[in-house]
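Researcher: Next entry in the queue.
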Amino acid sequence: METPLLYRQLQDQLRQWVTPKDQRHLQGFAEILAAILQSGSACLGKWIPYLSHRGCQARAHLERLNYFLHNQQISAEQFYEPILRHVLAAFAGGPVLLTLDTSMLWDQFCLIEVCFVWGGRSFTLAQVVIEHGSATVGFDQYQTVLQCAKRVLPPCCQVTLLADRGFEHGNLIHWLEQQNWSWAIRVKSDLKITLSNGCTQSVEQLFPPEAQAYLFENVQVLDGIACHLVTAKVPDTKDNWAVLSDQSPSLQTFALYGKRFGGIVACFRVAVPHFKDYKSAAFNVLQSGLRTAQALTCLFMLLDCASLIALMLGMMLVQAGERSRLDWHGERGLSFLQLGLRELSRLCYERLSLPKLLALPNTNPLPGCASLRKRDGLDCRIEFSKVVRFS
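Model: Structure for this entry, 391 residues:
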């Protein structure tokens, strides 16, 4: 039986960047990516119809897929990082925004990721799954993820890292300072802050009245780390806002941190869209059936590769002025990932060639908005009745 067109085309394109020691691994890699992109699923059983050219029974397919996912030679360093270097080449010497996040799977495994913010969403630079019963992890558990992310960035980038509560670790901040990376980290209300006047208080004691914001310059945290703090109480929000940063405190600190979610209105309110793509919006990873950290780490690497290919296709569709072929909104209402997945389905249905995958432009497109209500939310500017700066 003739091998499927998408599989052959992916193998040809990936061969430009991916050079494993065993070429059979590249064949399996391309086959699985084609199956993920066509099935839209992280469930191994749903990949089987797209592997039928091998003429195997379903059980044999599953055994081969499980072997691939547990093979230690199938790593991000071999397969994903070369693609990333191609995708990110245009960002050399420019500003980039990264996020550090965790997500829980079945209350048993913790996914730790460093992602690249682009186009109102983000895509993975480095990740690992560990067997851990909490989303709160220590610096020693995610340091290697940071180092892997640094390894794939183009040279001379001006990096800013955004992280949520639970990452206010002295070791992390020292590591960021050693890399000359800027940072903004949301902090818990019980963190102790030493103000510029020498007084030490918890963050809880430094929140302003409702609809006001406080800007604290030159504070110290975690045994002498110098930084700045901004706090605010915004009506109709679930939590108060408190963000530490190495940058001069201003209301723009909140806007910067809000880019972790795609906008300030989403800030502190919703799940990271990137994790939603893994779970309900695209691949439904919770139905994968895998229950080992190694296999899950490999699975997420494969999903990241598939997502990146779809993202590039979506970006190229917009650049070619053909977005309206698949997106009925007046302005872009779908993420680049969703656009790319739909374009891939069209190409497969019409048996058209996969275009040459291009690197991302270093300009950052506006987020896609599927409704006027969401657009209004992103365009909204929060007003404070009073802003107080403490020097």
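Model: The first helix runs from residue 5 to 14.
Researcher: Noted, moving on.
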